[in-house]
Amino acid sequence: MSGNIWVVAALCRGRLLDATYEAVALGRELAENLGTKLEVLLLGHELKDVLGTLGIADAVLCVEHAALADPVPEVHAHVVARLAGTRHPQAILVPQTNVTWELGSLVAGELGVPYVNSCTELRMVEQTLEAHTVLYGGKVEAIVRTKHAPSIFGLVSGVRAVEKGYADHAPATERITEVDVQPTSVQLRRYLEPEAGDIDISKEEVLVGVGRGIETRDNLEVSKELADVLGGAICGSRPVIDQGWLPLSRQVGKSGATVKPKLYIAAGISGAPEHVEGMKGSGLIIAINSDPQAPIFQVAHYGIVAKLLDVLPALTEAIRSRSRRGMKQYA
Amino acid sequence: MKIVVLLKMVPDVVEELEIAPDGKSLDTTYLRMILNDSDNHALEEALLLKERHGGKVCLLAPDAPEVDDALFAALAKGADRAVKIAGIDAAEGTRAVVARIVQALSTADLLPADLILTGAQAIDDLDGLVAPLLAQTLRWSHLSVVNQVRFDASTGVTTVTKEFPGGLRAEFEIKLPAVLGIQSAEKPPRYVPVAKVRAAMKSLQIDSTTVPIAAGMPALEIQSMAKPSAAGHAEMLEGLPEAVAGKLCDVLAAHGLL
Ligand SMILES: Cc1cc2nc3c(=O)[nH]c(=O)nc-3n(C[C@H](O)[C@H](O)[C@H](O)COP(=O)(O)OP(=O)(O)OC[C@H]3O[C@@H](n4cnc5c(N)ncnc54)[C@H](O)[C@@H]3O)c2cc1C
Question: With a CB-CB cutoff of 8 Å, which residues 67-96 of chain B face chain A?
């Protein structure tokens, strides 16, 4: 094995997503480990503004074509597959953002090579690439090996710190404009902006996040009361939003907001990687879950194994009585 | 509109998961199987499309423990036909599984169809290749992380909304037939009363089809499985709710949050 390591950049409306830098950081380690080069594959149209931060890589392969302006997965995948067919990278790392979700699998499908998704770690062991991948909503970790070159790896968010893959300079750039564009029956029509009007949860200092464990819409009241005494707001994981119990503007995670409050209370949230990527940067994380094995306890600072309907009201009451006591002291 | 929905049973992760003695798989002794969450959303989206535009919703599922219950529930919700594929083993690898699905689509007379819908992700998936490989094999279009499918009968145009980061969504026009990975349906999956499921069990049937083992790329081989290590585990607070609440208050106060 001697091919380069590729990272396919994830762009959203011309802006590099953080997951790209995380992938670059991991790709850098892997390239050192293998004594090979790290190249970032950047696909799009009029891309000059984004090159200046990719200097951790040895080179950027900048593939520019009008047909790549919009994020149509099958068009992008075909271009990546064709390039891989002539340049023989040893591994292709694709950050699993919503934008690039289909990309790795379509490339693997076209090339007839293995794809491993939800990877958290990649390294060379006994001449074989070994991937750690998360299964069952984060409850199990599996180790998979593949000897095939290239193999394609989808990376979960947070594989490395963004800063480790971020540079203030551009690497050598190779421009590729001759590309084999596949005809497609998928066309981007427009972007639909998130609805405004609600509060911006990314600006809140205290968030009480609720998940499927809240069970009913009526139970939300309990979390709201807690948020009120703490001077914060409530937000939710995807099932709560999908049920229509909270608006999309309150969703935390991959498809929702990234939040970094001083305090995040996760109640009845299992801690799936797609939720965790949106809240792991919070200052203090407290998790309440009836399942002692819930993965949220791996990211939380403090954990309580209990029913949320027992703990949340008790906590609200305890805070209330403390503040009453506090006021008496001042009186 | 003719829609095929691919459904799959997965372990219920609310239950405790144990690793089997081989160290490479889950211990299935106490495993409870449920319908994969996003497959349930794919089913709902198909039913919504049928309600709006007429047509048929056919279900195709690998045979698995408890799959009959899920299929009867789906029939009770309004699906028209359910077909099980006998003998599929995920250990064959996704390519072989997809080859079998393609065969089953024709032996069970499910093609031509306008749409094949399935969940954007299954929690037990190592490679998430089913939908994209199926699309490539059939030479249909593919999009995933979809949360709305709209068909305009007057123009014949189908639009699909895909989730992007930060609450942003992108609307695509897509020519049918297509294979779509549904992330969430436009509305929460409908509830079906047990009585209706029982009635479906009495009056309806599930078809079964057998397809030969397909040669494919060897499956990804799992070397080992483990529960994530306890590194970075939360400090656990124990006691009755009032006692725990008191301890939490101390923590909040120590962090200047009260
Ligand atoms: C492309 C993509 C994008 C996604 N984007 C997002 C996103 O933006 N945000 C997001 O959140 N998810 C997202 N997801 C979904 C994610 O994978 C998980 O399915 C989701 O986060 C699970 O939500 P949950 O923890 O509320 O539910 P579950 O995983 O069902 O967990 C419920 C938890 O509640 C606990 N519980 C049950 N009853 C009680 C009780 N009485 N008291 C206390 N605890 C209880 C259970 O033990 C369990 O741990 C995305 C998935 C994909 C594939």
Answer: none
Strand segments, DSSP code E, in chain A are: 5-8, 11-12, 15-16, 38-44, 59-64, 91-95, 115-125, 128-135, 140-146, 151-155, 172-176, 186-192, 206-210, 233-236, 263-267, 284-289, 302-305
For the entire predicted model, the pTM comes to 0.95
> Where in the sequence of chain A do the CATH 3.40.50.1220 domains occur?
201-329
Question: What is the enclosing helix (H) or strand (E) of A33?
Answer: helix A18-34
Q: Which two tokens stand for residue B210?
A: 């057998």
Q: Does residue A74 register a pLDDT over 80?
A: yes
Q: What pLDDT is attached to residue B7? A: 98
Residues B244, B248: Cα–Cα separation, whole Å: 6
3-state secondary structure at position B21: coil
Question: A44 CB near a chain B CB, below 8 Å?
Answer: no
In the stretch 245-274 of chain A, residues with CB closer than 8 A to chain B read 248-249, 251, 254-258, 262-263, 270
ipTM over 0.85: yes
Contact A303 B120 (CB under 8 A): no
Q: In this predicted structure, what is the pLDDT of residue A329?
A: 63
pLDDT attached to residue A251 = 96
pLDDT at position A2 = 78
CB–CB contact A140 B226 (8 Å): yes
Q: Which residues of B touch A242 (CB under 8 A)?
A: 41, 184-185, 188
Residues with CB under 6 A from ligand 1: A 98, 101, 137, 211-213, 237-239, 251-256, 268-270, 272, 274-275, 278, 288-291, 294, 307-308; B 14, 120-121, 145, 183
Q: Which residues of A touch B182 (CB under 8 A)?
A: none
pLDDT at A331: 55
C-alpha A238 to ligand 1 mean position (Å)? 6
Residues 6 or more apart whose CB falls under 8 angstroms from that of A121 comprise A131, A132, A159
CA distance B237 to chain A (A): 5
User: Which CATH number is A5-175 given?
Assistant: 3.40.50.620
CATH 3.40.50.1220 fits A201-329, yes or no: yes
| Residue A196 confidence (pLDDT) | 80
Residue A211 CA: nearest ligand 1 atom is 26
- Hey, which bits of B141-202 come out as E strands? 141-152, 157-163, 169-174, 178-182
Class of domain B2-210: alpha beta
Q: What is the pLDDT of residues A187-219, one digit of tens each?
A: 999 999 988 878 999 999 999 999 999 999 999
Sequence ranges of chain A with CATH classification 3.40.50.620: 5-175
**What are the tokens at A131?**
């991937």
Residue ranges in chain B whose pLDDT is less than 50: none
Q: Which amino acid is at B212?
A: P
Residue B16 has a pLDDT of 86
Residue nearest to ligand 1 atom 36, measured at CA: A213
Q: Does A219 touch chain B (CB under 8 A)?
A: no
Please choose, from the candidates A134, A39, A49, the residue with its C-alpha nearest in 3D space to the C-alpha of residue A96.
Answer: A134
